[in-house]
Amino acid sequence: MITFDALTLKALNTELEGFIDGARISKIQQPTRREFIFSLRNNGETKQFYVNINPQFYHACFLSKTNYEKRQLEIPQKPPMFCMLLRKYLENSKIAKVNQPENERILEFYIESYNELGDNIYLCLAFEFMGKHSNVILYNYDTNIIIGCAHNVGAEKSREREIYGSLPYIYPPKQQKTNILTYNGEIDYSRLSDDFYMISKNFENQCQATPLEQIKNYIQLKNISPCITKDFKTYSLFENLLPQNNTIKYSTVNEMIDDYYAHYIGLNKYETLKTHYHSIISKKLKKVSKTLKQMEYKLISDSDSDKYRLYGDLLMANLYQLKDYSENVSVYDYENNKQIQISLDKLKTIKDNANEFYKLYNKSKASKTKLTELIEEYKANKTYFEQILYSINSAQNINDLLEIKDEIIEEEIQHKKKSKIQISEILKLTPNDTTTIYIGKNNKQNDYIISKLADEDDLWFHVHNCAGSHVLLKTQEITDELILKCAKLAKEYSSAKNSSKIGVIYTKRKYLRKPPGANLGYVTYRNEKEIVLD
């Protein structure tokens, strides 16, 4: 990914100033601490001007509807304080002029507004695109005093330039570079960005071995032809600076910028969300697995509960032959044909000791029953979390992740919030005119396939004892080839796709059952058959 440089800003400003000059600010929104949306209206048309000051993705452009969705912008119900400040001073105000200070990565909106007394005042909204120092600053143009900024910069952060309310606004310190348009000497292509204004490191790499006069033409924005490489690794204002037949061409600079940064913002949000969801479910899975292991160990430890019943029976059978208040007794075990020693409570009679053994037996038996039920419940939860983890790992985009959000976020699990799923979202294959195969990408879709799409005689496929997709075969003629194809699909869309040998079970839909209160996508089955894929 490359950075938003001064030359790109200059090209964008040249392209957009015709609309921005004279536009009225109708709405201001701040989706996140570093993102702003200004709804600008001019000549009967409204556009959304987007500003991002994130150190990774700083840029500005008018948003398209597609890229608005790709950026996953969500407007908070309660706007941040700086957003409220901007609304107070700028909403319904007119932009008199848009400007880019010479050789700077700063875009300025000069705005006509009114103060609390109704007096006409002139404000400047400065968007500074300078890496980690990127900022949005509102100041009074008449007094040059800062009214507010997106984030304050104190003396502890910068020795040269402090930024916060009530301080005078000053431009960043000038860099010691040369204007290439007035330069006619020799150039060092490895130091273009260090020696000359308006040339970034990326542009320097693109201009290697380019004649000086041609570089000057680029700086003057002659013959702009914006494009992005097909792998989205870089963009350029000039198509001839990128490899031929490997670019996506754009008619405007704004479209190029919008597409390029929306791609990376969407990718970043997808990866961040995927990591976050993976962390949540991994912790839950680890906790369930640990508890399950402890329960199974406890069940094994309590497996000798029958011993207490035996001791009680033997004591009652020899009640009148044994002495009360004994510390231990020796009796013959007819079940196992051997003499055994039984330790007793010497403060109690033989009968009381027998009753104590019966109590221990009943308690152990009840505990064993309850423990077995809990183990089954925890096994179901473990399978459920493994299925969610598979869904997270196999998610191809952020929409796939958002679809399973309510299975991951605790509050939404408690409220059992359900989302509607459209059939078009489910992977659908049609090998021929009379056959359709549905493949669920997550628990919701698996549940939907079984409950809404399947008929009684349709075939259901799933990998054996593994997390994976439900595969449903709807056909008028079942053949061995179709069954094998669906089995392979079940393996491919599962956590065992790389296994050398795996079993796939299949049965008719009418033999599936979803227990009451069971997790999404969980079913029991009978009359199943198994295919082993080797």
Q: In the CATH hierarchy, what is the architecture of the largest domain at level 2? A: Roll
State the helix count: 14
What do we call the CATH topology of the largest domain? Answer: ibrinogen binding protein from staphylococcus aureus fold
Helix and strand content put the structural class at alpha+beta
Low-confidence stretches: 411-424
The overall pLDDT average reads 91
CATH classification, class level of the largest domain: Mainly Beta
Number of domains: 4
Tell me the distance between the termini: 43 Å
Question: How many strands in all?
Answer: 22
Radius of gyration: 36 Å
Percentage of residues in helical conformation: 25-40%
Query: How does the major sheet shape up?
Result: 6 strands, antiparallel
How big a fraction of the residues is strand? 15-25%
CATH level-4 homologous superfamily of the largest domain = ibrinogen binding protein from staphylococcus aureus domain
- The shape is elongated
- Strands of the widest sheet, in order across it, are 15-16-18-17-19-22
Your description of this structure?
The protein has helices at residues 6-20, 65-70, 81-90, 192-195, 201-206, 212-219, 253-301, 306-317, 350-394, 398-403, 405-408, 410-414, 443-453, 480-492, and strands at 24-32, 35-42, 45-52, 59-62, 94-99, 106-114, 120-128, 135-140, 146-149, 227-229, 235-236, 247-249, 328-333, 338-343, 427-432, 435-439, 459-463, 471-475, 502-508, 512-513, 524-525, 529-533. The chain has 534 residues and is of the alpha+beta class. The strands form 6 sheets. The protein has a 6-stranded antiparallel beta sheet, sandwiched between helices. Helix 7 runs antiparallel to helix 9 and helix 8 (306-317) runs antiparallel to helix 9 (350-394). The longest helix is centred in the middle third of the chain and has 49 residues, at 253-301. The protein is elongated, with a radius of gyration of 36 Å. Mean pLDDT is 91; it is low at 411-424.
